[in-house]
């Protein structure tokens, strides 16, 4: 017997993980990749040069551990978020990790866990229940309306009766694209018995004000999670962050791994933040392209779901899996998110969107 012969079933895996599937957006080598909601525009040359310089500088200190608390990076994130939301924030309100997935995991490690529950309104980001499972937090699925919007009165009723330790509100919601107005978020915050995580991974694409505005009103409940993976064109750099009361940051220090953000990550993220204006200039282009793609899909007889983000969920297909494969055969990778009759397309460059729209005329409905 070799190591290759051992199967997963033979391992003493936790019972509650048996039979589960890992997160699995396919990474296929096709010409047009519109499946993981990345920014399709590569970073500008000046940013690339700045990241390379920063990496060279810190490379001389690679024998030392990084700043465990990433204070400089958190100051830069606070400056960006304060400016974009008009809410004064300091590094004490900010925490950063390797992607917002790690932020969410740390939140559930601290506020969820065995004997505790996390509630989310489905369909939503598929990692929320997966991270709940990994941290042994019981997942409580709650419904959206048939058109995928959130009925915030019904949501508030449910949350009030739920005793959920953590509530997830994703705004704009992935994979459906709609966002929740501040008064709707407040209806839930007012009655929530525990922590409310507003996952704002796509906030820069939305014209709605950020939930950060509500921090002073709900300091013991509200956590706003953000990422540099989408609008910031930094998915490969892996940098997520949150804004919350400083006490929330203190709580996460209890569960984070020491030195979780490498010197390279911290330096690269700070360099990328110095070029925020250049990177975020793509947001307006992407929002305009999103509206064009939605109009074109309507013109082709599809039913796109109104989106505030850099992707569009659309239907209807009699067999979404077969349609997904037909797109791949046409050189376009989009996403089957498991919603009957629907697929999700990320907004790409105008050329990529045209390729997607051309393929949309070919695929079986
Ligand atoms: N939240 C939402 C709603 C997302 O869609 C994603 C990425 N698909 C994330 C969080 C995590 O992104 P990252 O870990 O790259 O920050």
Automatic annotation (TrEMBL):
Residues 17-43 are annotated as: Disordered. Homodimer. It comes from Amycolatopsis marina. Keywords: Amino-acid biosynthesis, Aminotransferase, Antibiotic biosynthesis, Histidine biosynthesis, Pyridoxal phosphate, Transferase. This is Histidinol-phosphate aminotransferase. The modification N6-(pyridoxal phosphate)lysine is found at residue 230. InterPro entries: Aminotrans_II_pyridoxalP_BS, Aminotransferase_I/II_large, HisP_aminotrans, PyrdxlP-dep_Trfase, PyrdxlP-dep_Trfase_major, PyrdxlP-dep_Trfase_small. The lineage of its organism: Bacteria, Bacillati, Actinomycetota, Actinomycetes, Pseudonocardiales. One of its GO terms (molecular function) is histidinol-phosphate transaminase activity. GO terms for biological process: antibiotic biosynthetic process; L-histidine biosynthetic process. It catalyses: L-histidinol phosphate + 2-oxoglutarate = 3-(imidazol-4-yl)-2-oxopropyl phosphate + L-glutamate. The keyword Amino-acid biosynthesis applies. Belongs to the class-II pyridoxal-phosphate-dependent aminotransferase family. Histidinol-phosphate aminotransferase subfamily. The keyword Amino-acid biosynthesis applies. Pathway: Amino-acid biosynthesis; L-histidine biosynthesis; L-histidine from 5-phospho-alpha-D-ribose 1-diphosphate: step 7/9. It is an enzyme of class 2 (transferase). NCBIfam families: hisC (TIGR01141), PRK03317.1 (NF002877). Gene3D superfamilies: Aspartate Aminotransferase, domain 1, Type I PLP-dependent aspartate aminotransferase-like (Major domain). Residues 32-358 form the Aminotransferase class I/classII large domain. Signal peptide: none annotated. Its EC number is 2.6.1.9. The gene is hisC. PROSITE patterns: AA_TRANSFER_CLASS_2. Its cofactor is pyridoxal 5'-phosphate.
